[in-house]
Amino acid sequence: MNATVAFDPERIRNFCIVAHIDHGKSTLSDRLMEATATVDRRDMSDQLLDSMDLEREKGITIKARAVRMDYHSRDEDYRLHLIDTPGHVDFSYEVSRSLAAAEGALLVVDAVEGIQAQTLANVYLAMEQDLALIPVINKIDLDVARPEAIAAELVDVIGFSEDEILYVSAKTGQGIDQLLDAIVERIPPPEGEPDHPLRALIFDSEYDSYKGVIAHVRVVDGEAKGQAPLRLCATNRRFEAMEVGSFSPDLLRQASLAVGDVGYVATGLKDVADVRVGDTMTIGGRHQPEPLPGYREPKAMVFAGLYPANSADYQELSDALDKLRLSDSAIQYQPESSAALGFGYRMGFLGLLHMEIVQERLEREYGLELVFTAPSVEYEVEGVDGQVRLIENPSDLPAPNHVAEIREPWVRISVIAPHDHVGAVMETVTGRRGVYDRMEYLQRSGSAAGANGNGATPTTNDIRVLLEYELPLSEILTDFYDELKSRTRGYASLDYSLIGYRAAKLVKLDLLINGEPVDALSAIVHSDAAATQGRELADRLRKLIPRQLFDVPIQAAVGGRIVARETVRAVRKNVTAKCYGGDITRKRKLLARQAEGKKRLKRVGNVEIPQEAFLAVLQLGKS
C-alpha cells in the first residue's frame, strides 16, 4: 500500500489486547503480526513487542507497545493498529492510556486458569471507555484446557453470549484468521473530521538523543505532516515536527498521519517536561481547536526514598529520572534530604512491582548504584489546629501531642481462588485487618459439566470463588501477595483499587543506631503492633548491620519510649597475638590502649548501613 496516500478511515481498526498477566497477550500479538506479514518470518522472535531486557527476563509486559498491520480481507485492504498492554495490576495505568487510543479490545482469557482478578478489572476499564469487546479464549491446544467451562464463566460472570466467544491458540496459530476477521467485523472504525485542524492525543512518549522527544499519538482530527509547525496545548510549546511515521513495530517514516492513525511524531524537543502524556498536539496557527479530554493523573500508592550510593552521582540520578519520566509518566518524584543518606528524591509508584522495575531500569539503563528506603503509603494527618496534611515520609510525621487524628488509605481487593482455598484466603486477609465485603461463585453448578473438556464431573479445584475485602493499603505492602500465593499453592489472583481514607491508631516507629535516629528507617505502624514490630525490626537489623570495632546498640522507639533493643557486638581484634612471653604488663598496656581506641571510635565513628537494612521493614511478619 502506498504510505503517502491518505487511508480511508472506514477501513482502519484500532484495538488493544487486555488480559490477566501471563494469559498470552504478547504471544497473540506475535501471531497477529505473523499472519499479516507485518514482520518478516526471519526477523520474528518470541514476544517481539516485549523489547526491554526486563520484560523478557520477568516474562511480563511493562510498557504498552503499538504496531501497524496491513490486512487483506474480502477484497478490501484494512489497516489494523494493535496496542499490546501490560497485565500486572501495577501497570493498569498503561492499560487505561492504551484503551483511550482504541475503539475496541480483545479480552484474552487463559483456557486453563479462566477469569482472574485482573481480567475483571480490565473489563471494567474497557466498559468505562465504551469499547467494543471481543472475548478470546487462548491456549486451547493444551491437554488440560477447559474451553467450554471458561466460556460458561464468560457468559455467567461478564455477560457475553456464547456465539461471541472465539477460541485460539497463540502458540500454534489456530483460530488467528477467524480472530482477524472478527476484528474487522466487530470493532467500529474511528470517528474524526479529516478537514478539521489537527488534534492528536499523546498516549505515550520516549526519548531519542537525535530526534528528541518522540510522541506516540492517535490522530483524532486532521492530519499530521513532517516539517509542519505544531503546538502542544498543555505547555503551549511550539515546534516543527522533524518526522512522522508508524510502528512496524520499529519506527517507519511516513509522509503523514491521518484520521484514525496511530503513530509517532518526532518533536526535536530536548526538554522532557514539555511533552506530557494525555496532552493534545495540534496545529501551530492562530485559531486553535479545543483540546482533547486527556487522562486522569495516575495516583501514586507507594512511596520510597531514593538516594545515590555515591553522593557525587546526585546530578546523574536527576538527569536519569527526567528521562525515565518520559517513558513512565506514572512515577512522581521531588527532592529530599536525609541525615543518614544525604541528598536524594522522594518517589511515588503505582505499586511494589512498579517500584522494583524503576529501580532495575535506573541501575541497568543509566549505570547508577542506588539505595531505596523501605516503602510506605500516604497518610492524612489532622493536626490539633484542624489543618490536614498529606504525609508520604514517616519521618515527617509530627509529634503525638500535635496530632488529632491519622487516616490511612484503604483498598478494595478482589481475590479469585479455587473453592478449596477459600479458608486460607479468609485467614490471610483477616489477619491483616481485612473487612469482609462479599463472596461469589464464578462457576455455576449448571455450567460445571464438561469442565475438563470431555464431559467429566469437575473437581472442587475447578470451582472458583471471587472474594472481596476492604483492608489498609499498608498491609498489602508487606509480604501479602507472596503469602496469598503460598497459601493457595499459586492459584490465587489479586486486584485492588483505592477506596478512600479511614482513621486508625497509628504511631511512628523510630530506629536509633548507635544512639542516632536514622530517619530513612522510620515507619508508621499500628499502635497495637508497634512493640512487636520494633523487636522484629531491631533483630533483623542486628543480623544485617556489619560488626564494628565497638558495640553498636540498635533501639526501636515510639515517641520517647524505647520498645526494643539489640546490640551488634564488637569485633575483637587480638592485639596481643605478637607478644611472645615477657611481662604481663605489656599485654595489659596493649589491651588498655585498644579499649581507649574503641571508646574514641564509638564517640566519632559512623556505622555503615547496607541496602538490605532499609528493606528489612518489608520482612516484618515473615517467619
Which strand order does the major sheet show? 11-10-16-7-8-15-12-13
Unreliable sequence segments? 46-62, 444-460, 601-605
Envelope shape: globular
- Amino-to-carboxy terminus distance: 62 Å
Main sheet characteristics = 8 strands, antiparallel
Features:
24% helix, Alpha-Beta Plaits, 32% strand, Elongation Factor Tu (Ef-tu), domain 3, six-stranded mixed sheet, eight-stranded antiparallel sheet, single chain, 623 residues, 14 helices, Rossmann fold, alpha+beta
Plain-language structure description:
The protein has 623 residues and is an alpha+beta fold. It has five domains: 9-186, 3-Layer(aba) Sandwich (Rossmann fold); 199-283, Translation factors (Elongation Factor Tu (Ef-tu), domain 3, Beta Barrel); 302-372, Elongation Factor G (Translational Gtpase), domain 3 (Alpha-Beta Plaits), CATH 3.30.70; 403-504, Alpha-Beta Plaits, CATH 3.30.70; 508-619, Elongation factor 4, C-terminal domain (Alpha-Beta Plaits, 2-Layer Sandwich), CATH 3.30.70. Helix content is 24%, strand content 32%. The protein is built from 14 helices and 31 strands. The strands form six sheets. The protein has an eight-stranded antiparallel β-sheet with strand order 11-10-16-7-8-15-12-13. A six-stranded mixed β-sheet has the order 2-3-1-4-5-6, with helices on both faces. Strands 21, 22, 23, 24, 25 and 26 form a six-stranded antiparallel β-sheet that branches. A hairpin with a 2-residue loop joins strand 27 and strand 28. Helix 7 crosses helix 8 (352-366) and helix 9 (422-430) runs antiparallel to helix 11 (480-487). The radius of gyration is 29 Å and the shape is globular. The model is unreliable at 46-62, 444-460 and 601-605 (pLDDT under 50).
